[in-house]
Amino acid sequence: MRERIRQWWNPGRLQQVGTRPDYRFSLANERTFLAWLRTGLALIAGGLAIAQFLPPLPLAHLREAIAVTLLLLGGAVALHAVDRWVRTERAIRLGTELPPSRFPALLALVVAVGALVLIAATLLRLGGNR
């Protein structure tokens, strides 16, 4: 794990692995990295928006729990982005299979569960206003 994290900070070392790929593959990998980073930033922005602008929900501290979850998830996505970029670039340079990842499925599951929690909180709030 330490070696993988070291590769995040030394891309020149990554260029010494394998052979130089077609630049289009490296640029596509970089665009994917940037897309993951945008996703992480969107989750962080959503967490901040919920913490600042969402009125209190019927369950105590639910708003804060959702905000903190989104902030943590955004940070995890950013870390995943750089790790995925390094592992994919290495696989491209070595001509091996791209590394598998369960992270997209995990992210989708967490977002779906979060949506269900917000739906339930909204329905509770609407029921309490009657």
Automatic annotation (TrEMBL):
Q: Which domain of life is it from?
A: Bacteria
Which compartment or compartments is the protein found in?
A: Cell membrane
- Tell me, in one coarse class, where this protein mainly resides: membrane
Cellular component terms (Gene Ontology): plasma membrane
Write down the species: Micromonospora pisi
| Record-annotated DUF202 domain positions | 24-91
Transmembrane segment boundaries: 33-53, 65-82, 103-124
Q: How does it sit in the membrane?
A: Multi-pass membrane protein
Keyword set, alphabetical order:
Cell membrane, Membrane, Transmembrane, Transmembrane helix
Q: What is the lineage of its organism?
A: Bacteria, Bacillati, Actinomycetota, Actinomycetes, Micromonosporales
Q: What is this protein called?
A: Putative membrane protein
